[in-house]
Write a structure and sequence with these properties.
Distance between the termini of chain A: 33 Å
Largest sheet of chain B: 6 strands, antiparallel
CATH class of chain A: Alpha Beta
CATH topology of the largest domain in chain B: Transferase(Phosphotransferase), domain 1
Number of domains of chain B: 3
Shape of chain A: globular
CATH architecture of the largest domain in chain B: Orthogonal Bundle
CATH architecture of chain A: 4-Layer Sandwich
Helix content of chain A: 25-40%
Low-confidence stretches of chain B: 1-10
Largest interface: A-B, 22 and 24 residues
CATH class of the largest domain in chain B: Mainly Alpha
Low-confidence stretches of chain A: none
Helix content of chain B: 25-40%
Largest sheet of chain A: 6 strands, mixed
Structural class of chain B: alpha/beta
Order of helices and strands of chain A: EHEHEHHHEEHEEEEEEEHH
Strand content of chain B: 15-25%
CATH superfamily of chain A: Metallo-dependent phosphatases
Oligomer: heterodimer
Number of strands of chain B: 15
Mean pLDDT of chain B: 85
Shape of chain B: globular
Radius of gyration of chain B: 26 Å
C-alpha cells in the first residue's frame, strides 16, 4: 500500500491541489495529513474542506500548532505576524470548518507507525525536531518503528540503530529509501504549502508498505499565483515572498 | 513488530534446508563476515545460478556485521549491470538475514594476487578491467570503499570471446550518494581494509569515489612488485603514515616496470584525491594507451621522498582536515572523457574550426575533463594498403601531425598561465575500413562520455563515405554533438 504523507499545507490551495494530483498519479491509496492545514496562505476554507472530504473517505489527519491557534486563539509565545494571520484565518472559516480542526487528534498510532505534527515526546508543546538530539528524544519516547512528523518545513530523515547511534540524511527527491528493519526512523516530508529550503516546489513523501520504502518528492506548482492571492487577501508581503523564493 | 524481536536467531544452517523460496544445496565458503551457500529456487523459475550470503553473527550483538549487512541489503538492490552480481532477494534480521544473488562462476582475483608479481601485460589487463567496473559503480552513485583482491571477481570467458569483465562484490562498507550512510556514525575507527584504505578514509571521509582508485593503485602496486606500498598496518597511527610517507617507487623493486605504469600507479596513490586520476574511466584510458600517458617525475623516481619531505608532510597532516567535495556520481560526471572525431583531410577548414570551438567550450566548463583527438585512416577492406605516400612519408604519422596541429589552439587554451596540463589531451589515429565503426568502437572501449564531430565531409567524399556523423549519432551509447560551420551555405539542406 502506498501512503501519501503530506504536512504543513498552510492554506495554500494551489500547492494542495498539485500535491494531491501528484500523489494520485503515483498511485497513493491512502492519505495522511500531519497538520498545519491553515495559517500563512489565502485559502484556509478550501484546504480544510478538501482535507475533511478525504478524512471522510478514510484519510488520517492530526492537529498542528496553527490549527490549534485558529481554534483556541493564538498562544502567548506566537510572533505578532502569525498571531495576526491566525485571527484573519479564523474569520475566514465557518463553524463546521472550525469544528473539524478542533476535533483533530494530536497524534495517531497505526500498526508500527506514529503520526504527529511536531514531535513524539510532547506533541502538544510544539517543540521542533531541529536535529539529531531532538529526533532521538522523540524516537526514545515511543515504541513505534516509524515516526512521521511535520512542523519543520525542510525535508529530513533521521535513523536510530539498536546500539543507540543516530544519523540524519538530506533526502534526494524520487529516490526510494528502504527503511531497514534493524533500526527506527523519523521522517519529516517537508512542507507542502510553504517550502523553505530555497526551492518553491511542494514537498511531500510516499511510504510503501509492507516493504517500508520511503520516497521524498518535489512537485512544481503555480507558486506565483499562490503568492498573488496572499497579496490580494491583504496578508503580509513577507508571506508572499516566501512562496516565491521558497525560503 | 516489537523492538526486541530484532534479537538474532542462531545460525545453524544445514544442506537441504529451505529458507523462504530457496533450498540450500552446498556450503561453499566461510569468510570473516559471512557464509555462502549455493541455493536453488524451489520453483526452478530462475535459470541463473544463485548463492545465498548469510552473515555470521559472533555471539550476541555485533554491530560491524549487522550494520555492514544492513548496508549491503540496502545498496545491492539498487545496482545493475555486468560489473555487479545481480540481486535476487533478501531476508531481514527479524527472521533469517540473507541476500540471494547471482553466483559468479569465474575466479576471484585472490589466486592471481597471491602469485604476484605478475607479467606487466596481466597487471595492465586486470587494472583496466577493475577501473572500468569501478567507473560503472560510481556512475550508479555508489562508492565501494573496500576494493581488494577478495572483493574482485571475473566473469567466465564465453565461447564467442565475451565475458572476462570484473565484478565487484561485498558492499558492506559501501556508500550510496542518495541513501543514508548507516556506517557514518557507527564506528570510532576508520573503516576499510588496512593496506587499501585511502588517506581520506583514514580521516573518516566516505564520499569520495577517488578512494576506490587509491585502493586500485595499491592493488596494481602489489601485482607489479609483489609488495604492499604501505604495509599492512593495524593501528590508526600505522594507517596515518600514508598521509606523509611515499611508497618505494615500483621501479626500485622491479626494474622492468615501465615508467608509464609507475606514473599511473603512483598517481593513484597520491595523498590528495585531486592529484590522482579523476575517474575510473580516465584510469582505464591511461592503462589502455600507455604511449599517451604524460610522464612526470613520478615516472622516473627511484627513491622515495627524503626525511625533509616526510617531516614537512607529517607536520601538514597533523591538523589537516580533508577537503570534502566529492560524491560518487558527481565526480564521474565532472571528469568526462570527450572525444573529438576529426576528419582532418576531408572536412573543410571552417568546419574544423567550428569543431575546435565546440570542444574548447566543453573543456573550459569541465576542468576535470580529458580530450581524446581521434582521426581515422581509412584502409581498404580487401587489398593491402600502401603504408607510404608517393613521397615516402607515412600516412599514419602524417595524420597524427595534422591532428596535433589542429589541436594546438585547444592545448594553448587548456593551459592557464602557459602551463600545459600533462596528459589532458591525447591523440589517436585509428586504421579501419569503416570510420563510423572505428569511432564507435573507440568510444565504447574508452568509456567516452561525449563525442564531438563535424556534420559532414565535403561533397564528393561524403557521397563516397556515407554520413559518418549520422551513424555515430544514432549508434553511440553516449552524448554526440554534431557540429556545423556557421557559414556553411548547405547547412539548411543537411
Amino acid at each position: 500500500m502506498k501512503i501519501a504523507l503530506i504536512t504543513d499545507l498552510h492554506a495554500n490551495r494551489e500547492a494542495v491541489a498539485a500535491v494531491l494530483d501528484d500523489a494520485r498519479q503515483r498511485g497513493a491509496q491512502r492519505y495522511v495529513f500531519l497538520g498545519d492545514f491553515v495559517g500563512y496562505g489565502s485559502d484556509p476554507g478550501w484546504v480544510v474542506d478538501r482535507v475533511r472530504e478525504l478524512v471522510d473517505q478514510g484519510a488520517l489527519a492530526v492537529m498542528g500548532n496553527h490549527d490549534e491557534a485558529v481554534v483556541k486563539g493564538p498562544r502567548a509565545g506566537m510572533i505578532p505576524e502569525a498571531r495576526w494571520v491566525a485571527e484573519w484565518t479564523r474569520a475566514q472559516l465557518d463553524a463546521g470548518q472550525l469544528d473539524f480542526l478542533a476535533a483533530l487528534p494530536l497524534c495517531v498510532v497505526e500498526d508500527d507507525t506514529l503520526y504527529v505534527h511536531a514531535n513524539a515526546q510532547a506533541p502538544g508543546e510544539w517543540g521542533y525536531i531541529e536535529g539529531r538530539s531532538e529526533a532521538v528524544r522523540s524516537l526514545q519516547a515511543v515504541t513505534q518503528r516509524f515516526i512521521f512528523c511535520g512542523h519543520v518545513h525542510e525535508p529530513k530523515l533521521f535513523h536510530l540503530s539498536p546500539a543507540g547511534k543516530a544519523g540524519d540524511f538530506l533526502p534526494t527527491p524520487n529516490v526510494p529509501i528502504p527503511l531497514s528493519p534493524q533500526r527506527r526512523w523519523l521522517a519529516i516530508p517537508g512542507s507542502a504549502g510553504q517550502p523553505r529550503d530555497g526551492n518553491p516546489a511542494v514537498c511531500y513523501a510516499t511510504f510503501d508498505l509492507p516493504e517500508a520504502t520511503l520516497t521524498f518528492h518535489r512537485v512544481a506548482y503555480d507558486h506565483e499565483l499562490a503568492a498573488a492571492k496572499v497579496r490580494q487577501a491583504g496578508l503580509p508581503e513577507a508571506l508572499a515572498l516566501r512562496l516565491i523564493r521558497g525560503t | 513488530m516489537e523492538p526486541e524481536s530484532t534479537s538474532l536467531p542462531p545460525v545453524g544452517l544445514q544442506p537441504g534446508q529451505v529458507i523462504d523460496q530457496f533450498r540450500l544445496d552446498e556450503h561453499t565458503h566461510v569468510g570473516g563476515m559471512a557464509q555462502l551457500w549455493r541455493v536453488t529456487r524451489l520453483d526452478n523459475s530462475d535459470p541463473m545460478p544463485l548463492i545465498m550470503k548469510v552473515p555470521r553473527i559472533k555471539g550476541g550483538e555485533d554491530p560491524t556485521t549487522i550494520v555492514g549487512f544492513e548496508v549491503e541489503q540496502m545498496i545491492m538492490p539498487t545496482l545493475s549491470g555486468v560489473h555487479v552480481p545481480r540481486y535476487v532477494a533478501k531476508g531481514d534480521f527479524t527472521r533469517q538475514p540473507y541476500i540471494v544473488m547471482e553466483r559468479i562462476d569465474g575466479p576471484s582475483l585472490k589466486p592471481r594476487f597471491d602469485a604476484a608479481p605478475l607479467p606487466i601485460e596481466e597487471v595492465v589487463h586486470i587494472g583496466t578491467q577493475v577501473a572500468i567496473a569501478l567507473h560503472d559503480l560510481h556512475r550508479q552513485h555508489v562508492i565501494h570503499l573496500d576494493v581488494k583482491p577478495s572483493n574482485i571477481m571475473f566473469r567466465e570467458r564465453t565461447a564467442n570471446g565475451g565475458g572476462g569483465e570484473a565484478v565487484l562484490v561485498d558492499f558492506g562498507l559501501s556508500r550510496h550518494d542518495h541513501l543514508p550512510d548507516l556506517l557514518e556514525e557507527e564506528f570510532e575507527l576508520p573503516m576499510g581494509t588496512g593496506p587499501y584504505m585511502s588517506p581520506e578514509q583514514v580521516q573518516f571521509v566516505r564520499n569520495d569515489p577517488r578512494s576506490d582508485l587509491f585502493a586500485l593503485g595499491v592493488l596494481l602496486y602489489h601485482l607489479t612488485t609483489g609488495e604492499r606500498p604501505f604495509g599492512a598496518p593495524t593501528s590508526v597511527r600505522g594507517l596515518r603514515q600514508r598521509l606523509y610517507r611515499d611508497p618505494v617507487p615500483p621501479r626500485a623493486l622491479r626494474a622492468d616496470c615501465p615508467p608509464w605504469l609507475q606514473e599511473v600507479i603512483l598517481s593513484c596513490l597520491e595523498v590528495q584525491p585531486s592529484r590522482r586520476c579523476q575517474s575510473g574511466a580516465q584510469l582505464s584510458f591511461n592503462l589502455q594507451h600507455p604511449d599517451q600517458v604524460a610522464l612526470t617525475d613520478r615516472a622516473t623516481r627511484v627513491v622515495r621522498g627524503g626525511v625533509l619531505q616526510v617531516a614537512r608532510r607529517w607536520l601538514a597532516a597533523l591538523g589537516a582536515e580533508p577537503v570534502v567535495e566529492a560524491n560518487a556520481s558527481a565526480q564521474a560526471v565532472r571528469s568526462p572523457i570527450v572525444m573529438a572525431a576529426i576528419d582532418i583531410i576531408g572536412a573543410d577548414p571552417d568546419l574544423l574550426t567550428a569543431v575546435r570551438n565546440s570542444v574548447q567550450r566543453l573543456l573550459a566548463t569541465e576542468p576535470g575533463s580529458r580530450l581524446a583527438c581521434v582521426a581515422v585512416l581509412r584502409t581498404n577492406r580487401v587489398a593491402m594498403d600502401e603504408p607510404l605516400d608517393k613521397d615516402g612519408s607515412s600516412k599514419h604519422v602524417n595524420l597524427l601531425v595534422q591532428l596535433k596541429h589542429w589541436a594546438r589552439p585547444v592545448l594553448r587554451a587548456a593551459a592557464p598561465g602557459g602551463v600545459e596540463q600533462d596528459g589532458r589531451l591525447t591523440f589517436h589515429v585509428l586504421e579501419a575500413p569503416d570510420p563510423g565503426n572505428a569511432l564507435l568502437e573507440f568510444a565504447r572501449k574508452n568509456q567516452v562520455d561525449h563525442i564531438v564531430m563535424g556534420a559532414r565531409s565535403s561533397g564528393g567524399l561524403r557521397r563516397y563515405l556515407g554520413s559518418v556523423s549520422a551513424k555515430v549519432a544514432t549508434e553511440a551509447a553516449c552524448t554526440v554533438t554534431v557540429v556545423r560551420a556557421a557559414s556553411d551555405p548547405d547547412a539548411s539542406a543537411a
